[in-house]
Amino acid sequence: MLTSRSPLALRPILRSLVTRGYASNFRASDLTIKPRTSPPRVKSPKEQLAFGKEFSDSMLTIDWTREGGWGIPVIEEFGDLAISPAATGLHYGIQCFEGMKCYFSPSDDSLRLFRPDLNMARMNSSMQRLAMPGFDGGEMIELLKKFCEVEKEWVPKGAGYSLYLRPTAIGTHPFLGVDVSDHVKLFVIASPVGPYYPTGFKPVSLFADSTNKRAWPGGVGSFKVGGNYGPTILPAKEAMEKGFNQILWMFGDDDEVTECGAMNLFFVVQEGDKKVLWTAPLSRGDILPGVTRKSIIDLCESWDGIEVRESFPKMPEIKKASQEGRLLEAFGAGTAAVVSPIERINYNGYDINIPATGELTSKVWDELNGIYYGDIEGPEGWSVRV
Ligand SMILES: *Cc1c(COP(=O)(O)O)cnc(C)c1O
């Protein structure tokens, strides 16, 4: 009788779930590195690098099936994937990704990652939102370190240079039913990148879009799932044709500010004698929990003279602050650009002009870059040696 069983009697059931893959994990110690068959690719001079166009020699792949659980992690030659044209990832957007960077630190000749635990937690949450399996973030960080070590020649040196890492998960189950994917492929590719601002900050202009929405309460805006990005490309192209760099995404009847482009958005406003760093909160689930966003908030909370506010700024309030001379700075934040100063926002045909790159934007830029490259000892655990 079930009620008379001790909890221990449930163990065989749990064990069978584990061996069937439902709770299994891959282990970094199982990594297999396949020998290369072709010669290393030719690397472009670092000055010519453009974002995401060139890839390193290898990729890391791990397959999962419902039957067998996670397979063995493999580092193999970078190359095309063979997947069924019926794969769920190609039909129903069963796809999510991460963006992170490996930096060369001249202070001790080390390679470093920045807060990779946050990327792994976010990837787990994105995968689980798409009913894909979870994994052990710590094991994945060890694998990323091994991958960076194998690809160390691909980490360009110098201020602003890094090896951009793109962990990705896709449904590979060949099945046209709109259902849980029984086969998943997790892979990591790497692309050497140069400074986002080779000649100093280049402030951007934004079009506050009152028609198109990026995300909404109850939606999936807080997950890095591919389905959030494809639909933004056409509105972004239209905004560019009107002379803007990116879209400022709003939501709600009172035009709450959410994000810009694929970046989190910050304002600095003067209120009486205090300066407020203002950004949208994560609580409603329509904001991507950026690693850069969190790091900026963490830093500013530890600095004097700035108060952090996480609530939705409304565009009319931002316009009013600007008219009263209280809108001091505005910037986007994300791994690719770090911070992206904003000089103009067009809201319902009205141009809000923002003073040139401000004090806080520059301070955040210096501090984050200092930590990325190991010149500044950041908070414990932020800079992780490979
Ligand atoms: C990736 C992303 C960001 C920035 O996240 P980071 O972890 O800081 O790189 C912000 N907004 C959106 C919509 C994103 O996709």
Automatic annotation (TrEMBL):
Enzyme Commission number: 2.6.1.42
Cleavable signal peptide: none
Keywords: Amino-acid biosynthesis, Aminotransferase, Branched-chain amino acid biosynthesis, Pyridoxal phosphate, Transferase
Listed InterPro entries: Aminotrans_IV, Aminotrans_IV_CS, Aminotransferase-like, B_amino_transII, BCAT-like_C, BCAT-like_N, BCAT_family
Chain positions found as N6-(pyridoxal phosphate)lysine: K224
EC class name: transferase
Any one GO biological process: branched-chain amino acid biosynthetic process
Catalytically driven reaction(s): L-leucine + 2-oxoglutarate = 4-methyl-2-oxopentanoate + L-glutamate; L-valine + 2-oxoglutarate = 3-methyl-2-oxobutanoate + L-glutamate; L-isoleucine + 2-oxoglutarate = (S)-3-methyl-2-oxopentanoate + L-glutamate
Gene3D superfamilies cross-referenced by the UniProt entry: 3.30.470.10, D-amino Acid Aminotransferase, subunit A, domain 2
Required co-factors: pyridoxal 5'-phosphate
GO molecular function: branched-chain-amino-acid transaminase activity
Family recorded in the similarity comment: Belongs to the class-IV pyridoxal-phosphate-dependent aminotransferase family.
UniProt name for this protein: Branched-chain-amino-acid aminotransferase
Lineage start: Eukaryota, Sar, Stramenopiles, Ochrophyta, Bolidophyceae
